[in-house]
Amino acid sequence: MQTFNLSDYLLQYLDKTSATPRNRQLYRLLRQAILDRVLPADTRLPSSRDLASELLISRNTVLYAYEQLLAEGYVEARTGSGTFVANTVPDAIYLPVESAVRKKSGASKAQLSQRGHRLVAQAAAAPRQWGAFVPGVPDVTQFPHRVWNSLQSKIWRKPAISVLTYGQGGGHQGLREAVAEYLKVSRSVACEADQVVITNGIHQSIDLCLRLLSDPGDVAWVEDPCYWGARNLLAASGVRLRPVRVDAEGICPDAADLAEVPRFIFVTPSHQYPLGMVMSLARRRSLLEYARQHGCWIIEDDYDSEFRYGGRPLASLQGMDSAERVLYMGTFSKTMFPGLRLGYLVLPAILSQSFVTGMEELHRSGQASLQATMAEFMTQGHFNSHIRRMRLLYGARLEILQQEITRHFELSQVCAVGSDAGLHLTLRLPAQCDDRQIAREALAQGIAVRPLSSYYQDASHTESGLVLGYACVEEARIAPAFALLAAVIRLHL
């Protein structure tokens, strides 16, 4: 038996001034009443003629609503008896809209796994990805888009089947070959094309390594400080992180670190991130020998080695590895543009086929046309030309920023480190400075910097400082932007 007056209920919410047709309004109101159990299962609905008369609307309007509810399973027609609310409502398992809104925040937390909680709690991606002084972002306005568009249009004029169908696990063959050739010449990487797997960037490369080579509870050494993205990926995978200090020669494990053999050693030897030191030859040889003796995997992140302003780029750690324990990874995000989302992973020959298969199973390679365009961009010489041009541009911007630092501060107050390569420098501050607070105050002035302390995992040896990107800041903007930042810093010295 109906426990309330349906006509009064519907008249209360039908809006004659609404742009939504009245038949749709009526359908939605009846559906919501069923979902909210205002109209329980087995409730008999008024005949279409009676309801139309009570609502002062046409019978066709009611018939539309009833027919739509019937088609979706909310009601059922019983011969000789009328239309009834169905016993099994398709959407009954969902919360009503109002309840869903009220419970949204609590439900989202309750549904996360422990791993999900850790990942979200440690998230560090910045909302701003452009301007002074966002670290690690290239000047995308200088990218030769006309050249790129010409190459891409040529591929799309008559695309090969391989460009349109599912990609192979290792990526576009032409790009694998181009990457292998480039790395041999520029980074002294020892590899062939079939050892190269094309990925969507450093994050996917790390994730692939972890999925195929790690088990929950495995230990990973990470430089301390280190890139937050790598640290969070490792932690979210179930690997136990062991932060290892760095000194002037790079990662520097002590006796306590050596007591438990790690499964992985994550390093940035050519330009430590974020401090900028280069791993010494002695430290490289020692690390490689340790990995050989204990069967560790070294993950070498060579993230921005192309941009070195004090001489030729340094050779890779992988090129010195005779025991095949190094997994080398790089990205086109810094040399091309971040939105490209292309990276590469160079594997020991013994692992290459397994990783190609794993990539195919986990991620289903795609973007073949994009990869084909990138291959043409490299083989025709545009890539090397672009790097040479950007190296000069970034070098000039770095020099301006260094001059501004010297102009605003004495050497006894701040110290710029890691400024001979890459797209950023790190400004070390006195220990009493709260770099997180400085970063917040600078952001209020429109200046985005990252606090150095946020890159550390071991709080016992955290340093204060700011990581400043200069690549995506026009020359004329560097001085006034740094003046604003310097004013904020002086308040904390």
Automatic annotation (TrEMBL):
UniProt keyword annotation of Transcription regulation present: yes
Record keywords: Aminotransferase, DNA-binding, Pyridoxal phosphate, Transcription, Transcription regulation, Transferase
InterPro entries (UniProt xref): Aminotransferase_I/II_large (IPR004839), HTH_trans_reg/aminotransferase (IPR051446), PyrdxlP-dep_Trfase (IPR015424), PyrdxlP-dep_Trfase_major (IPR015421), Tscrpt_reg_HTH_GntR (IPR000524), WH-like_DNA-bd_sf (IPR036388), WH_DNA-bd_sf (IPR036390)
Domain of life according to the entry: Bacteria
Protein's UniProt keywords contain rRNA processing: no
Location of the HTH gntR-type domain: 20-88
Pfam family, one: GntR
An MF annotation (GO) of this entry: DNA-binding transcription factor activity
Protein family per UniProt: In the C-terminal section; belongs to the class-I pyridoxal-phosphate-dependent aminotransferase family.
PANTHER family, per the entry: HTH-TYPE TRANSCRIPTIONAL REGULATORY PROTEIN GABR
Protein name: PLP-dependent aminotransferase family protein
Protein's organism: Undibacterium rugosum
Lineage: Bacteria, Pseudomonadati, Pseudomonadota, Betaproteobacteria, Burkholderiales
